[in-house]
User: Which sequence fits this backbone?
């Protein structure tokens, strides 16, 4: 097996096309396995994976846990709500204690940018980023890419539009790096208070403030979840105005490509960023994303563990 | 060691670096000769600069002596070639004469030259005025509320108005808390790429503008600490042409680093005033050249190891600098400025801002000096630092110059 160039998965910025291709190709194979009656393979038998979640998560943690179990790994869940972190233990001490229990892989989610890299700098475990602040959420972007490839055959030359709270979105950041590396044209669109102001280092994508223009030629539209805290922080006046201006609605989709894919990282605020009839409609591939999430995470864990075994 | 003879040394005398000579340092002064048997040191052409004066010292004692003490700070000053400094602690507001007397007593035992800023509000809370007249009579050289932002403009007016009776300068680290919000780093392309909450330049410039207007209105002298962006310097220049008595300093690390260092996510680069863009850094250098910037500050702010050995955003802001300041900045300074201007920025001007007699090298006079090999590198290691903190953004880096020894208030310390 050819190895990944990366030793950990911190994010998709700087990850090569070779590595992303390898993850997606492996994920396709795991996707087939997930359709079988027996969905388990012995690839990570004897390895221990710790899911170290300092932020609440149901979907991502469950998806990782399923991926680990289907690779036959032993899994341990560690959440900040029931951990020594509440007793004042530092992040590095938490990691070193867990590592002393002879674990192999750590899947981490944390509110702080760069925590996965920090953990890798301070341990020997393989680190997989399950979301760090507003920085990156690489497995979400990989599953989005897998979904587009599965439905449209390729990412090369496809137009992908991401709509919503770009400024605070780790999903948007990982997607813009990953999708553009794989040859897609990415357009980002959101209210002026929810898009970054300084985009010089992200100039490989198109920034568009008019959602109608942003989706006009899209092959796939990713609607981002709008968090209620944005209203409390005066970044937006109301959910209502957001829905009317940036929501993915039936009216908006009247003038787009017939086969456009509608995607969402979940959980959906129905009637805000995405109308129910669209979320449940024929263009929606949201549940495919969820299934692909398990396959992509299996591929990431398998390839990173394989790289370590081959080292 | 009280006495030393430095051979083959090039002293900074009368505004320039002189030819190699011999300096006899006896009982704190540059003597014409030394007693027989005085140890000698071959400087091998190194330069002897007047010892430096540090703006922005915070040694944490007494309330946070678990982090750092005056003893640690004084040791750091000796290692870095500082004979004195302007002390203002974020941990200990000097807001009454008893606290001032206590800290003066601690510092007096150290044998170095300290000046102190008093708080203008009790506990830096911007609620009750500190007894500024009494603090002034006790010897504070100015007033400041640590690095706190005084959000209540009326209180600021009253504090400056009351404090104007003393004739002392008011010191501010200008950052508007509301615009800063939860920001930790410069709001620029690196922060936006990393998804980190940024501090916009206008958080600084709007605060500078507010304080300059107040200074103009009340005719009170003000000083801006750790200016970080070019727009601020323009506001200061304009205010000066309108007669406002305003001075400012630039932090040493802001001259060496910009926000591109964020990609390393090194928690040592988490500092109270964010590293701004490369353009801002260049504007600060131009401010040194033009004279808009009065002095270079060090802002020595120790942070415990466990408070830095975390991810960037959870780290306690702050950096230590005394031990590395001169070897880090001397060569960059001398590539753009004269040696005389460099000495002015690091030694003379900071001392004058603090009302302390500047260090000068002159045969027959008192001498505190730092011996620097401008062309020998220094590798920044943990062992360089006094005390138990090592929170230096340059840790692990190589500095372009090297301190060979210091002679501070009559004590020779060889590296």
Assistant:
């Amino acid at each position: 097996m050819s190895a990944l160039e990366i030793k950990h998965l911190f994010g998709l910025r700087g990850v090569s096309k070779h590595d992303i291709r390898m993850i997606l190709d492996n994920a396709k194979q795991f996707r087939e396995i997930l359709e079988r009656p027996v969905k388990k393979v012995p690839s990570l038998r004897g390895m221990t994976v710790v899911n170290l979640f300092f932020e609440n998560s149901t979907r991502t943690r469950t998806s990782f846990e399923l991926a680990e179990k289907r690779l036959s790994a032993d899994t341990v869940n560690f959440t900040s709500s029931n951990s020594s972190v509440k007793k004042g233990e530092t992040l590095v001490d938490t990691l070193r204690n867990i590592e002393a229990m002879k674990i192999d892989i750590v899947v981490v989610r944390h509110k702080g940018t760069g925590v996965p890299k920090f953990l890798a700098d301070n341990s020997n475990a393989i680190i997989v980023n399950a979301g760090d602040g507003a920085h990156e959420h690489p497995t979400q972007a990989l599953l989005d890419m897998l979904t587009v490839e599965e439905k449209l055959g390729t990412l090369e030359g496809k137009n992908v539009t991401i709509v919503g709270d770009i400024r605070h979105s780790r999903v948007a950041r990982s997607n813009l790096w990953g999708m553009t590396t794989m040859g897609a044209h990415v357009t980002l669109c959101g209210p002026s208070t929810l898009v970054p102001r300084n985009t010089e280092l992200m100039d490989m994508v198109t920034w568009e403030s008019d959602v109608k223009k942003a989706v006009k030629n899209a092959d796939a539209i990713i609607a981002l979840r709008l968090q209620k805290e944005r209203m409390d922080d005066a970044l937006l006046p109301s959910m209502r105005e957001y829905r009317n201006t940036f929501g993915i609605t039936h009216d908006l989709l009247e003038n787009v490509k017939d086969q456009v894919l509608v995607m969402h990282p979940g959980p959906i605020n129905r009637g805000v960023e995405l109308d129910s009839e669209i979320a449940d409609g024929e263009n929606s591939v949201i549940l495919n994303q969820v299934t692909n999430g398990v396959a992509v995470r299996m591929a990431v864990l398998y390839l990173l563990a394989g790289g370590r075994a081959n080292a | 060691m009280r006495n030393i003879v430095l051979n083959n040394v090039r002293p900074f005398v009368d505004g320039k670096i002189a030819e190699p000579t011999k300096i006899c340092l006896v009982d704190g002064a540059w003597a014409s000769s030394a007693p027989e048997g005085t140890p000698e040191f071959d400087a091998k052409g190194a330069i002897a600069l007047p010892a430096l004066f540090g703006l922005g010292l915070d040694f944490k004692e007494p309330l946070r002596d678990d982090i750092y003490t005056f003893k640690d700070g004084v040791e750091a000053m000796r290692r870095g070639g500082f004979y004195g400094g302007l002390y203002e602690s974020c941990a200990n507001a000097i807001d009454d004469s008893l606290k001032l007397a206590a800290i003066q007593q601690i510092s007096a035992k150290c044998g170095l030259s300290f000046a102190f800023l008093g708080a203008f509000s009790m506990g830096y809370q911007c609620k009750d005025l500190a007894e500024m007249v009494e603090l002034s009579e006790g010897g504070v050289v100015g007033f400041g509320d640590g690095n706190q932002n005084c959000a209540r403009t009326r209180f600021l007016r009253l504090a400056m108005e009351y404090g104007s009776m003393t004739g002392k300068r008011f010191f501010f680290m200008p950052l508007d808390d509301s615009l800063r919000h939860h920001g930790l780093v410069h709001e620029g392309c690196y922060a936006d790429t990393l998804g980190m909450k940024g501090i916009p330049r206008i958080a600084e410039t709007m605060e500078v503008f507010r304080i300059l207007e107040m200074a103009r209105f009340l005719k009170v002298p003000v000083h801006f600490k750790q200016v970080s962006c070019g727009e601020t310097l323009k506001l200061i220049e304009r205010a000066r042409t309108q007669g406002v008595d305003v001075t400012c300093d630039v932090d040493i690390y802001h001259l060496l680093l910009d926000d591109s260092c964020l990609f390393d996510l090194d928690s040592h680069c988490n500092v109270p005033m964010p590293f701004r863009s490369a353009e801002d850094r260049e504007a600060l250098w131009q401010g040194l050249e033009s004279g808009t910037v009065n002095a270079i500050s060090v802002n020595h702010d120790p942070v415990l190891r466990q408070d830095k050995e975390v991810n960037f955003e959870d780290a306690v802001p702050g950096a230590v600098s005394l031990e590395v300041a001169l070897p880090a900045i001397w060569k960059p300074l001398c590539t753009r400025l004269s040696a005389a201007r460099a000495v002015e920025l690091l030694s003379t001007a900071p001392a004058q801002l603090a009302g302390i007699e500047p260090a000068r090298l002159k045969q027959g006079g008192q001498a505190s000096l730092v011996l620097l090999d401008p062309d020998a590198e220094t590798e920044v290691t943990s062992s360089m630092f006094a005390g138990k903190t090592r929170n230096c953004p340059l840790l692990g880096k190589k500095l372009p110059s090297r301190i060979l020894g210091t002679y501070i208030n009559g004590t020779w310390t060889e590296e």
